[in-house]
Amino acid sequence: MAKSAVDVIGVTFEHTKQQLLQPFRLGQWGRLALLGMATGEMSTGGGCNSIATLPSHFPSSHGQQSFMAPAGLPHFDPAVIGSMILVLVVGGIVLGLVWIYVASVSRFLLFEAVLRKQCELGTAWDRWQGQGLRLFWFQLALAVITLGIAGLMLLPLLIPLFAAIKGHGHVGPGLILAFLPLLLIFGVFSLFMLLVAVLTKDFVVPMMALDGVGVFEAWRRVLAMMKAEKGGYAGYIGMKIVLAIGAGVVFSVITGIVLVILLIPGAVVGAIAVVIGKSAGLSLNAATLTLAIVVGTLLLGVLLYVVAFVCVPVVVFFPAYAMYFFAERYPQLHARLYPSSGGGVGATAPEPPPLPPAPAPIG
To answer: Quick check: is 327 in a domain?
Structure first.
């Protein structure tokens, strides 16, 4: 009889301990942190994305003007502002597409790294690009469909809302109550799309990796398995939520402490930079604003990497938890996690199946 979602928790903790601490390898932690950032797995525990809660603006004094004061904005050439906005929009779209592709390939790298207890990046990237491209097209289509449906659902809510604000300056409780059913439907839709994303990374990706099939064929097989054991998979989802809450509490505290330790000297350095800039007579212009954006982006990247490094146990635990649960129902994965040759869980490094040719681009 297949083990339940509760039964595999113990072996998942043991797997995580063995991979990260027996022995401790700093290089592996660093590579796993990169995969955690690329795949977004570091936020699975709910507490490793604390950096998103940092304030986006700080109160400023209107009685004095510094070289970074908002009062400098009216002196910008409108053409320069328009060009910067265009660059940001186009750059954001391009970076979003690149991130989806990197995340798609990295999802297979993370699966292999947890399965083998050995994290590789260079050779593994070349090995999984074919399947990663398949996952990329699926995730891109899913993102477009999700945004389109969400926009259609929210449009009936936003139009009368803006009209009420423009006409009366305030929104009455009656208008808000009228849209509660729509908001409820939107919430259910959001949970459904989140469930699709979780099932894709937990069950569809392993089947794609080990059987060499495409996304839709893997989904067809996973749905057939779920239909045969609805209670077991429902228990897995429920147990994963509980574990995510627990991990969120623990790692929120840890990442909060680390961020405070890092932000204190960072604030001191920032204050010194402001003083030096004012002394040098710098003013807010396109050059200084660009420099501030570049420096801020680099600092944000460093903070994200530090958070990901702290959250490496989460990056390993949750994929391993999905593997040990799914292995009880998927013989190919069970054979890789429990090799007959002995040597412990996952001791044999699996060879990935031959990759099928990449599908032709849509359109």
So the answer is: yes
3-class SS string, the chain: CCCCCCCCHHHHHHHHHHHHHCCCCHHHHHHHHHHHHHHCHHHCCCCCCHHHHCCCCCCCCCCCCCCCCHHHHHHCCHHHHHHHHHHHHHHHHHHHHHHHHHHHHHHHHHHHHHHHCCCCCHHHHHHHHHHHHHHHHHHHHHHHHHHHHHHHHHHHHHHHHHHHHHHHCCCCHHHHHHCHHHHHHHHHHHHHHHHHHHHHHHHHHHHHHHHCCCHHHHHHHHHHHHHHCHHHHHHHHHHHHHHHHHHHHHHHHHHHHHHHHHHHHHHHHHHHHHHHHHHCCCCCCHHHHHHHHHHHHHHHHHHHHHHHHHCHHHHHHHHHHHHHHHHCCCHHHHHHHCCCCCCCCCCCCCCCCCCCCCCCCCC
> For residue 330, which phi and psi values (nearest 5 degrees)?
-130, 100
Distance CA 48, CA 311 (A): 6
- Nearest-angstrom CA–CA distance, 215 and 358: 12
Rg, C-alpha atoms of the chain: 24
* Distance (Å, whole) CA 290 – CA 303: 20
Whole-structure pTM value: 0.74
Q: Tokens 């796993």 map to which residue?
A: 32
Query: Looking at the predicted structure, is the pLDDT value of residue 235 above 90?
Result: yes
Residue 112 domain boundaries: 9-49+73-143+199-337
Q: How many domains does the chain have?
A: 1
- Tens digit of each residue's pLDDT (9 = 90 or more) over 240-297: 999 999 888 888 888 888 888 877 877 777 777 777 767 766 666 666 667 777 777 8
Q: Is residue 345 part of a domain?
A: no
Q: 200 versus 64: which is more confidently predicted?
A: 200
In a domain, 179, yes or no: no
Mean pLDDT, rounded, of the chain: 78
